[in-house]
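A.,

Following up on our hallway conversation. Structure tokens first:
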């Protein structure tokens, strides 16, 4: 990787650990300087708090930002606030508005999903024992109050107005069989916005883990094409 490689900042899903990026980071590192943000176990943080935390981590550096699942709205709000400093955003298995009725999210926050159902929803037919073991470890160590606080934030989130006003390049990647975060609402938002692209993968929700190499290839191509567009502009 060249010293002048662009930087991509990865924002984690609901677990906040960044540990689930371990499969895609080596592929992205072929072309990017990769920074993984890890969220603190702080029940007081809402989306505004996470945005501020990531802004501090980025500083004044020009970067690409990838927001996975829970962090999609964080990526959108960052791009809206930081303007040209954000070279482009990747929205992975995520949303710009809560795709479910808020009461469903709030109720699910207090439920413990059985392991087999959890794995079916998150990985579908594309998981493997190693990924299941890592997920077990993450779930066991995720604070219940923090999980509830983050799901409550999801229940009320709507950054579609900010998303529609974005001027930076946008790539959405989504699993065709994602039942946790349905693809259709994100697909509709991308179509309405224009000048944005969506790529669907044969995957459930955890596409960055089960399709890591292919997803990284598309993200790298996205960065190259958006860099060319910015240069021509």
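Then the amino acids I'd put at each of the 233 positions:
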């Amino acid at each position: 990787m060249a010293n002048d490689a662009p930087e991509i900042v990865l924002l984690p899903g609901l677990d906040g650990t960044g540990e689930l990026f371990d499969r895609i980071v080596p592929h992205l590192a072929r072309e990017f300087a990769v920074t993984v943000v890890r969220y603190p176990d702080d029940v007081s943080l809402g989306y505004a708090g996470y945005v501020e935390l990531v802004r501090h981590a980025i500083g004044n550096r020009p970067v690409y930002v990838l927001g996975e699942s829970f962090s999609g709205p964080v990526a959108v709000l960052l791009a809206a606030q930081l303007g040209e400093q954000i070279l482009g955003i990747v929205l992975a298995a995520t949303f710009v508005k809560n795709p479910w009725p808020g009461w469903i999210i709030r109720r699910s926050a207090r439920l413990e999903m059985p392991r087999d159902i959890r794995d079916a929803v998150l990985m579908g037919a594309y998981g493997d024992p190693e990924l299941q073991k890592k997920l077990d470890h993450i779930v066991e160590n995720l604070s219940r109050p923090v999980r509830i606080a983050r799901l409550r934030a999801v229940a009320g989130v709507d950054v579609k107005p900010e998303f529609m006003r974005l001027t930076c390049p946008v790539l959405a990647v989504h699993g065709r069989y994602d039942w946790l975060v349905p693809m259709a609402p994100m697909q509709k938002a991308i179509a309405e916005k224009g000048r944005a692209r969506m790529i669907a993968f044969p995957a459930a929700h955890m596409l960055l883990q089960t399709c890591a190499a292919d997803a990284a290839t598309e993200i790298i191509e996205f960065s190259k094409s958006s860099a060319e567009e910015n240069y021509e502009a």
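Strands lie at 7-11, 33-36, 63-68, 86-92, 170-175, 196-201. Curious whether your intuition agrees with the design.

B.
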